[in-house]
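Chain A, query sequence.
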Amino acid sequence: MRSTRLAPAAAVIAALALSATACSTKSGTDANGADSDGVKTGPGVTEKTITLGALTDLTGPYASLGKSIVNAQQLYADQLNASGGICGRTVKITVKDHGYDVQKAVSAFTETEPNVAAVSQMVGSPVVSSLSQELESKHLLTFPMAWASTLLGREYVQVVGSTYDIDMINGVDHVVRTAKLKAGDKIGHVYFEGEYGENALAGAEYAAKKAKLKVVGQKIKPTDQDLTAQVTALKQAGVKAILISAGPRQTAALVGTAAAAGFTVPVLTSSPGFAPQLMATPVGPALEKMLQVVSPAPAFADNPAMEKLAKDYKAKYPKDLLDPGVVSGWNAISVLGEDLKAACKAKDLTREGIAAAHRKQAKLTVLGVPLNFSDRTKPATYQSFIHKPSKTAPGGLTNLEPAHEVPAARTYTLPKG
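Chain A, predicted structure.
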């Protein structure tokens, strides 16, 4: 369920932004807003630095994920700066923790927006929804740590990779093939209420219709921890496989409960539904046996780029686990980094210049995955990976099926936000 936009807060943001614009001065620029090196600049860019914003969750329900995203993006910035930065400027990231609270996120945005050139991460679909109009009006290119297709179509909000519904279309195809499902069979889908779960459900239902399957849905809340009732209902319904679009705790609860009941059907989760920490819990063996993960990103051992990321990350953060947040954070800032390089080449590091450079990225490869950002109404890729949990693999996952897309992914009508 999408959060209601905070109109009073938005009005305050707009007023503060106008005030900051009216009062700010910038040395070293000419009448056209160009620095002494001839590069046109805007908010967040000086002759020495480019400042990016990050609105994340370091104390709320996605704290571990938020930490990994922040770490990965700082690693990228450190490596970029060591190689000379962008246009001779050092890249800095201003990180603000909102604890997955929309009001706190709005306040953090108000504080940081006048002084950043782009937003390298924004955690939480409700946060993105509440700030979407401000992002568009301020021409602030933003990378949400959310993958709902309802976020597509916006000039200044960019989902990196495939979307939840596209992943599920590809994932259902995998389940149908590997579990040998037939027309008329039932599959269960346990999903969070709200943008994430319902977007994944839309893709699953479309794929099921194509395969002539019936989806038995079970909506849950992020606060739900005991899924006994859902597992019992799906078992009684006779489903041959289960999809789950929820968090890691819910995935572990579902698989553990099903395994204990002898209900060992294949379970496929969306990428946010898995965390490597689960492999060290009592449900670890059942996850290895029953669970598969559909993801827009490769596993850490999939290719040389992923292996290098894993090595570099562990060297900088030896006590931290490799998890999906590392990949998500790296993906987003890698794309933004290429945008900044292109904008530098065009001598336009204004917000508009950065966004224009981004929309010209039609053949960009990040971590071995080809991405196309030239059409804002479509996902950057229609391909998904299928992974399998492994206690011994870096990041807790090994690749089961390489990146692929099925025809249904292209015929599916993407919902509008």
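Residues 164-295+383-411 form a domain with the Rossmann fold fold (CATH 3.40.50.2300). DSSP finds 13 helices and 15 strands in the chain.
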